[in-house]
């Protein structure tokens, strides 16, 4: 039998996530969202483009790379478009195809690089945007309070990180966290 952490992503001492202990509502929401984002990043770490693009099981089009592309669109949709009110096209929706983020997740290093750069860029925009607003009750251009958008984003990442758990375990056996 191997060491208890041998098939997990990081040991507790090396884990970049805080996972609780936040003080106050704002820090709690921002902290848990940050941890969920880091979880997806951990699930994708050290994989080849082929592994990132590998699909779960037919007929699903889900892959880790597809999840990164999807979350880039989700970040963009809620923070850049809904909250800030920018009229921009989604990164990965083609002609209204809501599954283009998954369908276009192919094992090409350029596609992988673009997906992670786009996702990180949307996270940076979201973090700057949230930092610029003091009141969690602030209602964005799309009519949604910032507090609800943050809760929704935590929920969205948590759901997809569950998918990422299974995808990663299927790729190389790494589990948990």
From TrEMBL:
SUPFAM superfamilies assigned to the protein according to its UniProt record, in alphabetical order: DinB/YfiT-like putative metalloenzymes
Protein known as: DinB family protein
């Amino acid at each position: 039998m191997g060491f208890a952490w041998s098939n997990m992503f990081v040991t507790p001492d090396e884990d970049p996530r805080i996972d609780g202990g936040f003080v106050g509502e704002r820090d709690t929401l921002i902290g848990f969202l940050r941890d969920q984002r880091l979880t997806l990043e951990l699930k994708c770490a050290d994989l080849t483009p082929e592994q990132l693009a590998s699909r779960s099981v037919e007929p699903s089009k889900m892959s880790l790379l597809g999840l990164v592309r999807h979350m880039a669109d989700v970040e963009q949709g809620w923070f850049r478009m809904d909250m800030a009110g920018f009229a921009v096209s989604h990164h990965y929706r083609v002609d209204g195809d809501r599954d283009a983020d998954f369908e276009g997740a192919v094992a090409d290093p350029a596609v992988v690089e673009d997906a992670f750069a786009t996702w990180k860029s949307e996270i940076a925009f979201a973090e700057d945007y949230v930092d610029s607003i003091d009141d969690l009750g602030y209602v964005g251009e799309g009519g949604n309070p910032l507090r609800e958008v943050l809760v929704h984003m935590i929920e969205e990442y948590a759901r997809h990180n569950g998918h990422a758990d299974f995808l990663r375990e299927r790729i190389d056996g790494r589990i948990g966290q």
